[in-house]
Write a structure and sequence with these properties.
alpha/beta, GIY-YIG endonuclease, Arc Repressor Mutant, subunit A, Rossmann fold, 6 domains, seven-stranded parallel sheet, six-stranded parallel sheet, 19 helices, globular, binds adenosine-5'-diphosphate, binds zinc ion
């Protein structure tokens, strides 16, 4: 029996009762139908708790018709409607759009909005203490006096808050209450953050900055538009988009600033506070749950004006968003690879398009994609050609490691060591960059050649000498460094091959025993907090030589840093990634851009075994136009993004044979169609990760081809994967391993 029921208010056999579609956080493509219990009122967007199988989940009432094939008698009822405001029409369209684009389940995209269930209910009230002016305490003490002073104006305080400001113990407040001098009232918990002041005066902008800022402020409140701020490191891009944020706030709209790395938020917070007199809200995985809850509510009710955050903040339920800034827009961290694989930079543009507000991408090394969007007129380019401080860009030199390299077993070329000595002598800082954590990327036995590799992954174990461990960088497996070879059982035969940052640190310390040396990577005990503290010390000049991974590549200004040495400029160029050249250029330009940022006279030294490569040449010349031009041309010729479209299908499972057969079976049912090529299955470069074997298919098509439609149609014919095999579709993949 099938009933055709309308959205809201159809009939069921039990009499009139509304049935609504509810999107739940599971990997299915449609919403499920639920009954609305009597007395409950919901509309599209309402956030609700519903039964699902034998659990309860949080979902949202969605749009569109309900499934008419289900037996109304079997329908379950919504359990609870939260007080949070319903998800807006725009945000629902955004969820549908992202799901449609990524081929993800809309419910899984919705889940990124509904991260904290606590935030869906109003903030619980807390007990406040207030003065009753007609009662006097039996005797007065200094402590009591102090407390009463703060209560003169009749306002209520929490016990802890009051004791805190008065500098007395909580028992003093308690005592006054017992005597009836104070009464309790229920009051809202912590007041929201103070508002940033858009009219506080900022820096005087230079001409380029002013022109760019004028273009941005004119666009606020005037519909969708995408901008690309292309400005060399230190050109003052931040100051420019601060003006856009100020204008959004003046128009009572909210603003969101995306940054690629959590470590970058702290410096941003300080700068923002200097400019606007108050901090923006911060949103990323390390923000404590309680504060995230408050931010979520504040964003939804409009109390929070500006948010800075990681890519996930793109899914916050803003009341009236008027601007998104994507800082360091070229950064690979904007792409999420697991669960719903989305690119926050591109989806930010989509969100602006749907909700009709401008989106600003900023970078010193814009992505090829964004540059092509400028050429085709989709994005407007705003150029900042010089450093705001007037400082010259650093001089870049290369060292040919074939002829000018160090002796065997050392990693720093004589020329680099010489420059480090000079910097040290002048009281300046040096940075050595190597994007490799740990001590050595490979450990082997000198006697029998045994190599240590991870049992769950196709990867060598990396020696971490500080921790005394061999560690897998893919799954986190670790074991103590053994004293003898597990294969031939000879003692003391293990040798470390190649350098990681720890090993470079060792070499530096022996070359410059008097220097203050810091190895900065995510392995520092104490996590991100520790990294932030150490960065601050570097900023204050407490360190002479920093050896760092990509953690130090971004953001932070180090005023005393004049020398940057790239230990291995070729690393990352030979990994089969179509964006390898572009990525290497971006990373090395960012890192060398740390040299002489404020006072000029910076020097960057690139150690390379092939300094004739275009990437190195582009860095040496300081003029990347030619490099980008060649890069764009070769992508166009090869039909690679953004001129063609790519999708990766990653098939993984614990049984190698079954996983491969499933991948082959997908090829077997491939619809024949002009304009699309499917390559594979090929064993992934990382063939085994966390005990799962991985095979890849690569779909290539022209720009205008409906890639998603093709894949959706293809996979709808596929048998359901069995035996724990998983199929992940990655539209516009950024990683190819
Ligand atoms: P970017 O984001 O382009 O790397 P920043 O906005 O961080 O550059 O600016 C680099 C440095 O120059 C910062 O210390 C900033 O305070 C300073 N700065 C930016 N604009 C100006 C200006 N108009 N006048 C003086 N200093 C400026
Ligand atoms: Zn592993």
């Amino acid at each position: 029996m099938t009933h055709q029921r309308d959205f809201f208010g159809g009939t069921t056999d039990d009499g009139p009762q509304a049935v609504v579609p509810v999107l739940v956080p599971v990997a299915v493509n449609t919403a499920y139908s639920y009954k609305v219990p009597e007395g409950m009122s919901v509309r599209p967007g309402s956030i609700v708790r519903v039964p699902l199988g034998n659990r309860e989940v949080v979902g949202a009432v969605w749009d569109g018709p309900i499934d008419s094939n289900v037996n109304p008698k079997k329908l379950k009822s919504i359990l609870h409607a939260y007080e949070a405001k319903p998800i807006s029409d725009d945000l629902r369209r955004f969820v549908d759009w992202v799901a449609n684009w990524t081929l993800g389940a809309p419910g899984m995209v919705l889940r990124m909005i509904l991260r904290s269930e606590e935030a869906l209910e109003p903030e619980p009230m807390v007990t406040g203490y207030r003065r009753l002016f007609d009662v006097e305490p039996d005797r007065m003490t200094t402590a009591r006096e102090k407390v009463l002073e703060y209560l003169e104006d009749g306002m209520a305080w929490t016990k802890a808050g009051l004791a805190g400001v008065a500098g007395v113990s909580a028992s003093v407040v308690e005592g006054l209450y017992k005597q009836g001098v104070l009464e309790t009232v229920m009051m809202p918990a912590t007041p929201p953050l103070p508002d940033p002041d858009p009219n506080k005066k900022g820096r005087t902008l230079n001409e380029h900055q002013q022109n760019a800022a004028d273009r941005l402020t004119a666009a606020i409140g005037n519909g969708f538009k995408a901008f690309l701020i292309d400005g060399v490191t230190g050109s003052g891009k931040t100051e420019v988009y601060f003006e856009a944020i100020a204008e959004a706030m003046r128009q009572n709209k909210q603003a969101l600033v995306l940054v690629p790395e959590i470590a970058l938020t702290s410096q941003f917070l300080t700068r923002f506070e200097e400019r606007f007199g108050a901090r923006p809200a911060e949103w990323h995985s390390q923000v404590p749950a309680k504060r995230r809850e408050r931010t979520w509510r504040g964003v939804a009710n409009g109390e929070v004006k500006v948010v800075v955050g990681a890519r996930s903040s793109l899914f916050l339920p803003f009341k009236d968003l008027g601007l998104i800034v994507v800082d360091e827009e070229h950064d690979g961290a904007y792409k999420q690879d697991d669960r719903v694989p989305y690119n926050a930079r591109d989806m930010a543009v989509v969100r602006g398009h749907i909700s009709k507000f401008p989106v600003v991408l900023a970078s010193a090394t814009p992505s090829v994609e964004s540059q092509v969007n400028v050429h085709s007129g989709r994005y407007e380019m705003l150029r900042l050609p010089a450093r705001a401080s007037g400082a010259e860009m650093p001089t870049i030199k290369s060292v040919d490691m074939r002829t000018e390299g160090p002796e065997r077993g050392s990693w720093l070329a004589p020329q680099l060591v010489q420059e480090m000595a000079t910097a040290l002598g002048n009281g300046n800082q040096s940075l050595l960059f190597l994007n490799r954590r740990g001590y050595a990327p490979l450990t082997l036995c000198r006697t029998c050649g045994h190599r240590f590799h991870c049992e769950n992954c196709s990867a060598w174990l990396v020696e971490h000498r500080f921790k005394g461990k061999l560690v897998c960088h893919h799954c986190g497996y670790s074991q103590p460094v053994p004293h003898k070879c597990p294969e031939c059982e000879k003692p003391d035969t293990l040798v470390a091959c190649g350098p990681g940052v720890e090993r470079i640190g060792e070499e530096v310390s022996s070359l410059f025993p008097e220097a203050r040396v810091l190895v900065l990577s995510s392995d520092l005990p104490g996590g991100m907090e520790r990294v932030k503290r150490e960065m601050k010390l570097v900023e204050e000049g407490e360190v002479d030589i920093v050896i760092g991974t990509q953690l130090v590549a971004k953001g932070h200004n180090f005023p005393l840093m004049t020398l940057v040495g790239i230990i291995d400029a070729d690393l990352g160029l030979s990994n089969g990634d179509p964006r390898a050249g572009e990525r290497t250029f971006q990373l090395l330009a960012q890192v060398t851009g740390r040299a002489g940022r404020i006072h000029g006279k910076g020097l960057g030294i690139l150690q390379s075994y092939a300094p004739e490569q275009p990437v190195i040449q582009a860095l040496l010349s300081g003029n990347p136009d030619e490099f980008y031009h060649a890069e764009i041309e070769s992508r166009q010729r090869a039909g690679l993004p953004p001129f063609g479209r790519l999708a990766a299908l990653i098939i993984s499972g614990t049984d190698r044979g079954e996983t491969e057969s499933y991948a082959k079976c997908l090829i077997g049912i491939l619809p024949l169609l002009d304009g699309v090529t499917v390559l594979g299955p090929a064993e992934a470069a990382l063939a085994l990760v966390r005990g799962r074997y991985r095979f890849r298919l690569l779909v290539m098509a022209g720009r205008a081809f409906d890639l998603q439609g093709f894949i959706r149609n293809w996979l709808s014919q596929a048998p359901n994967p069995k035996g724990g095999i998983r199929l992940q579709v990655d539209i516009d993949p950024q990683n190819f391993f």
